[in-house]
Amino acid sequence: MAKTHPVIVVIEDDPPIRRFLRTSLATHNFAVFEAETGKQGLIEAGVRKPDLLILDLGLPDMDGVEVIKSVRGWSAMPIIVLSARSNEQQKIDALDAGADDYLTKPFGFGELLARIRVALRHASRPAEHTQDEVFIVDALKVDLRNRVVSVDGNEIHLTPIQYRLLCVLIKHAGKVLTHQQILKEVWGPSYQENPHYLRIYMSQLRQKLESDPTQPKYLLTESGVGYRFKVG
Amino acid sequence: MAKTHPVIVVIEDDPPIRRFLRTSLATHNFAVFEAETGKQGLIEAGVRKPDLLILDLGLPDMDGVEVIKSVRGWSAMPIIVLSARSNEQQKIDALDAGADDYLTKPFGFGELLARIRVALRHASRPAEHTQDEVFIVDALKVDLRNRVVSVDGNEIHLTPIQYRLLCVLIKHAGKVLTHQQILKEVWGPSYQENPHYLRIYMSQLRQKLESDPTQPKYLLTESGVGYRFKVG
DNA sequence: AAGAATTTTTACGACATTTTTACCCACCAA
DNA sequence: TTGGTGGGTAAAAATGTCGTAAAAATTCTT
């Protein structure tokens, strides 16, 4: 897949600031999606799976810290908090809830951009995992850096969901993952009641990756529990 | 493994601030090492290999941004910058050079601590796997984290109830558990009147785990009372 | 706005697990 | 002996879970 623009979700109730962020970020080659309220924002974050979340703490419908905690329940995406109030305790609460950075209004847009770059740098560079960037078992090879999957050297095309599912499984290779855990990581928190998707995509992955899909060597079913990627 | 204190190197030329940081951080259980100049700081960082670097930009001997770049040449350790100047361009330069955060003096110490926690959180992402609970008795191995059971290295497939039953037994290994206790933990409070299930599943477990199911080494019957998992 | 790729919905046969039912043994007391 | 108790194993029946194909709806590209 071609190098696509980073996706940012902005949760901000104040229309002028929202407009400002949207246009400014767009001109710097970010794909921006917006939400006015905390609830909307959570949905948007779950659906868009952004590379970064920008969150205003002063929302009308729910506490910003609750939004952060809720997102952290299923994702480690970078969160940058904006706030009009410079109360120190509030900063601490937001950061401890899982926010990665905190800017007090008014802030310079250049600084925001720099802090966005920092956040994206963090997310894209789990530097310790450099050696695990390419996952190989027998004939199966998953190149996480380039997002290329191959079997016996033949490149296999995977759809976004198929690929994400495979990534989740090999990230926890050897471990049995429950349906809910997988659904949460792949589809987001709102899809936790649909183990059916899982069976369908698991089947598709087996067709593409296993030499005998009816008797999988890697993508194992743990009936009544979930799935696991077998290693060793 | 003893939980060791995070190591922090502070590069700061102003003695009062340095003293303040040293004592304050020390009381929050950090191991603090100090340097007065950029050159000293680079050496200190290289020798101590800290979990975090705190850097004042206004050093006498070299530009703070150069210090950052130099560290980034060989390490991805978190760097938090402190600065008296709130010039935006300087912030941007420092962040783009590789700093992870930037605080303008005067700052609240609580906020600094919170931002330190954020930075350490980033650095130790893969530390979720700290809780490895693996029970091993002779050839039997129960990996609770991965939900995998093996005998002599051969994986054994257990159904949900079989697995739950085994977990209950090894959780209270050595103790005698009554039928009722086990039924309650495995099937839930409403099934307490069916010791028969227990015999069936206990038999299945023995078939799968014991080398001689008719004379079990681990899954022992306490006649008239219940069962127990024998250890030692 | 049309066409391709992908995701979601729908449907149904196959499979695995749990529960029920049945029969076995060993032991002890009447 | 006979009958009762506590326990073990092996099968059926019932239930719940999985896998696959294909159609419908959506999203992405052009």
Automatic annotation (TrEMBL), chains A, B:
- Modified residue 4-aspartylphosphate is at which positions? D56
Tell me where the signal peptide lies. none
Question: Which residues belong to any copy of the Response regulatory domain?
Answer: 7-120
Q: Which UniProt keywords apply?
A: DNA-binding, Phosphoprotein
Annotated OmpR/PhoB-type domain ranges read 132-231
Locate the DNA-binding region by residue range.
132-231
Q: Which InterPro entries match?
A: CheY-like_superfamily, OmpR/PhoB-type_DNA-bd, Sig_transdc_resp-reg_receiver, WalR-like, WH-like_DNA-bd_sf
Record PROSITE patterns: OMPR_PHOB (PS51755), RESPONSE_REGULATORY (PS50110)
Q: Which Pfam families match?
A: Response_reg, Trans_reg_C
What the entry lists under PANTHER family is as follows:
KDP OPERON TRANSCRIPTIONAL REGULATORY PROTEIN KDPE, REGULATOR OF RPOS
Q: What is the protein name given in its UniProt record?
A: Response regulator
Organism of origin is Methylomonas fluvii
